[in-house]
Amino acid sequence: MKKSLFTLVLLSAVTACTAASALFPVVVAGRWGYANKSGETVINPQFDRAEIFTEGLAPVKMGKWGYVGTDGKVAINPQFDRADVFSEGLASVKLGGGTSPYLDDPRPWSPWHYGGPGGGGHYGFINADGKYIINPQFDDAGKFSGGLAAVKMGKWGFIDKSGKTVINPQFDEAGEFSGGLAVVKLGKNFGYTDTDGKLAINPQFERAQAFSEGLAAVRSGGKWGFVDKTGTLTINPQFDEAGGIVKGLAPVKQAKKWGYINPAGAFVINPQFEEVLPFSEKLAAVRQNKKWGYIDAEGKFTINPQFDEAWGFANGLARVKVGKNTGYVNTDGKYVWNPSN
């Protein structure tokens, strides 16, 4: 389920493009390009890897990582060993330490984290022109959110867009700001800091997730519950796993099955699935009998289980896999891009 909890975070950035102009990464014969919402190829498959567009640019791998514009032209020449999507006008990039085939999530507990001790190289931040606004100097770096980004300098702290340290490096781990608070780890425990660097919720949890719709999932005593921004438990720890609240529903696992609860902690969709994703665009990907499909907010299948992997919807399409092949379906379950490799 770890993959499920964080997949939406990465792919939901697609919504930064308008629905009319959104482009989706596709792969043909091992080469990556982009198609539009109608399934028409807009940028011919030519890259080693292609990621989602945000703020008009997408990271692409051509030996090294660079960025391409929606017109298919290389906007920032390939030169980086790792490159993240743009957020608030800046993107973190890495020089040295070898290339990664995917985007990198700075949170060490995330399955999308490809860094680690001894990885080498340094992270900095570039603007849309490819110019360094903050020179490579950090061991690791996250995305800007609320004007701040988590960076690692031995310990994790936060910088502003000028590169000035706003919150001194002191944390063992740190996430992005959401709702004015960011997850941080001190020693063995997780808590939350505000944008001034003050601990808004003291580190006391075994795990903690970002705030969403006023609540955050936290683990205490081996079970997951939810807290508000004062740190008060609004839903007592009782679940084996949990995800963030989206559109009033949060995925939780109980007795080896997943379902969805509302902010009051009551089940709206009873536990019955093997794996799930948070809701996106009124549908949620769920796995039943080893296949993924999509349900609505009442728990009814709108797209029957048939996929080997599935992601959340963004701009009307969801990425799915059949075997090793990747495709896209619309909310009616019809292929816009047939699975290909």
Write a short abstract of this structure.
The chain is an all-beta fold and 341 residues long. 3% of the residues lie in helices and 55% in strands. A hairpin with a 4-residue loop joins strand 18 and strand 19.
Strand order of the largest sheet: 4-5-6-7
Largest sheet: 4 strands, antiparallel
User: How many helical stretches?
Assistant: 1
Alpha-beta content class: mainly beta
Compute the CA-based radius of gyration: 20 Å
Strand content: over 45%
Tell me the total number of β-strands: 35
Q: Look at the structure and give the mean pLDDT.
A: 91
Give an overview in words:
The protein has 341 residues and is mainly beta. Helix content is 3%, strand content 55%. The chain is built from one helix and 35 strands. The protein has one helix at residues 2-11; strands at 23-28, 31-36, 41-47, 49-50, 57-62, 64-69, 74-80, 82-83, 91-95, 122-126, 132-138, 140-145, 148-153, 155-159, 165-171, 173-178, 181-186, 189-194, 199-205, 207-208, 216-220, 223-227, 233-239, 241-242, 250-254, 257-261, 267-273, 275-276, 284-288, 291-295, 301-307, 309-314, 317-322, 325-330, 335-340. The strands form nine sheets. It has a four-stranded antiparallel sheet with strand order 4-5-6-7, with no helix packed on it. A four-stranded antiparallel sheet has the order 8-9-10-11, with no helix packed on it. A hairpin with a 2-residue loop joins strand 32 (309-314) and strand 33. The longest helix has 10 residues, at 2-11. The model is unreliable at 1-20 and 106-118 (pLDDT under 50).
